[in-house]
Amino acid sequence: MSQAANGASSGTQKAARKKHPRGLWVLFIAEMWERYAFYTMQGILVLYLIERTTSGFPPGPGFGWDKPDANKFCGWFMGLTYLTPIFGGWLADKLLGTHRSLVLGGIIIAIGQFFMAGAEFFGFGDLGIVNWTSAPVVFSMFAGGLLLVIIGCGFFKPCAAVMVGQLYSLDDPRRDSAYTIFYMGINVGAFIAPLVAGVLYKNIGWHWAFASGGVGMLLGLTVYQVLRPFYLKGIGLPPHHRPEHEEDHKPTPEQIKQAEIDEHERTRPLTRVDWDRIIVILVLTMFAGVYWVAMKQQATSLTVFAEESTNRTIPALKTVLPETWYQQMNPFPTPWYQSVNPLAIILFAPVFAWLWGWLDRRKMQPSLPVKFGIGVLLVGIAYIAMIFGAIQAARQGLAGPEWLMIMYLIGTWGELCVSPVGLSMVTKLSPVRCQSMMMGLYFGILFFANTGAGYVAAFGDSIAARGVDAKSLLPGQGDFFLILTVVPILVGVLVLVLSPKIKRMMHGMR
Fold first, then answer.
1. pTM of the entire structure?
2. Which of 97, 134, 190, 194 is most buried, by CB atoms within 10 Å?
3. Closest CA to 102 of 39, 157, 29
């Protein structure tokens, strides 16, 4: 009888071990809606800035900026959303805890989205260009909304990812797959957002598209707050907050022991092994920055290329849609292209998770730095498709829609080798005392990548404006896309060459 009971208990523990905690799905939903809010805005921001202003109510659309200025502005905005998590992560580690920081960040993001939507209701007429001088109230409100989103991302972004790691012990084999699931949540939101934003801005108004992001963020926070007491109790507490201090919570001896271990980890001095692992995080994040400079062109130069140089008509839709709908949706909204990347992640993330497991069982799984190198290589290979697209656009006026599709698909395969692996890397290699700050630093280095992406896009505009001359190798934007092919391939090869040294500095952490 006792043996049977012990066997049943052991079987239950093994079954429970295979299942992910329900708190993961709560964080999945919260992150999904936060990313929906962010990508709603990213999908249309550069288009809004370059669109000419018109009078009427609501006024607009657009600020009437030229493309280089709009690309640089978008680069700075996206970059700053990766810089503020350094400070938000530090505050979470030292004062707020990840839970409070996440909620505060979500509220600030929602307010920022509503500020941007509200700017549309201040009449500014047919000004040609909207800026601080021509329309100070409108510009201040819109820029203020963007600033609030930047600040909110600083609180929200590092904490959601760290809370996923707090659900598992360091040696839990489910940890990497948990981050793959979490990353799918990010991309469910990123997939839906451009589709919704494209329909709203094209058929109703820009303000509705911006406001929908705020509504989505509030919805995500509501679900999180309702479910947290049931599935995330004890997760994300402020520092030095032991489990027995939480209201209505009676900790088990195991929880008390774990809290004592955590307290020791927060206060012990850093060792040589800790510093080596921190160096690995910084080095691989800088290499990943090359990947993101190339891939983040989707919010700037690739969006403009889709708007101005890509055939976005789908004649087959005429047979399945009413005539009025077909006229409204053809050409289809440019932001829809930005849904290709997250859709590919949703489809291929399980494939990559299976692939890593299959290789691991055969002792063939590539090391973490090798995965980074493969990811950077793939984004360079992806831009070969854009070279062909640029040549076709230069010769025929418009490129076929397939070139952007191919680029996003192969680039996404690279992303699955870099981004979810990077999130897991930070939580594995970071000392407990500074996990949130290191996650913020991981995002913070991407500040330079995203800001650089805006300037790279502006450089691409100057290449296209130059036309074909003695310095040109390829017509149109072909030279620009050639650079985005060659540089990542060279950097990817460098990462692969350095990977044995980087792996040794991880000191056995996989």
1. 0.76
2. 194
3. 157
In the structure encoding, which two tokens stand for residue 143, read together?
A: 């820029």
Beta bridge partners of 310: 399
Across 180-218, b (16+ Cβ under 10 Å) vs e yields bbbbbbbbbbbbbbbbbbbbbbbeebbbbbbbbbbbbbb
Instruction: Give the integer Cα–Cα distance in Å for 438 and 426.
Output: 7
8 Å CB contact between 337 and 300: no
327 falls within a domain: yes
Q: Which two tokens stand for residue 133?
A: 């001088």
What's the angle, vertex CA 244, arms to CA 243 and CA 246, rounded to 5? 70
| pLDDT tens digits for range 11-31 | 434 434 567 888 888 999 999
- In whole angstroms, what separates CA 28 from the centre of its chain? 14
pLDDT tens digits along 100-116: 999 999 999 999 999 98
Say how far apart CA 311 and CA 398 lie, in whole Å: 6
The token duo for 358 is 């299959």
In a domain, 192, yes or no: yes
Residue 233 lies in a domain: yes
The whole-number pLDDT of residue 61 equals 65
**Alpha-carbon gap, residue 500 to 504, rounded angstroms:** 6
Question: How far is residue 393 CA from its own chain's centroid?
Answer: 29
Q: What is the pLDDT of residues 121-156, one digit of tens each?
A: 765 555 567 777 777 888 888 899 999 999 999 999
Residue type, 352: F
Q: How far is CA 421 from CA 201, 394, 426, 427, in A?
A: 35, 38, 9, 10
For the record, the structure tokens of 94 come out as: 């030292």
Residue 426 C-alpha from the chain's centroid: 16
CATH number of the CATH domain containing 63:
1.20.1250.20
Domain count across the chain: 1
Residue 14 placed within a domain: no
Least confident piece of the model among 31-35, 59-63, 67-71: 59-63
Q: What whole-number distance in Å separates Cα of residue 114 and Cα of residue 507?
A: 47
Sign of the torsion angle spanned by Cα atoms 152, 157, 160, 166 = negative
Contact by Cβ (8 Å): 291, 418: yes
Distance CA 398, CA 310 (A): 5
Give residue 375's pLDDT band: very low, low, confident or very high (50, 70, 90): very high
Per-position DSSP letters for 107-163, written without gaps between them: HHHHHHHHHHHHHTTS---S-SS-STTT-HHHHHHHHHHHHHHHHHHHHHHHHHHHH
Residues 116-131 as b or e (16 or more Cβ within 10 Å = b)? bbbbbeeebeebeebe
Return the structure tokens found at 427: 């939580």
Record the tokens describing residue 507, joined without a space: 């000191």
Q: Which domain covers residue 221, as residue numbers?
A: 20-239+270-505
| N- to C-terminal Cα separation, the chain | 41
CB 481 within 8 A of CB 387: yes
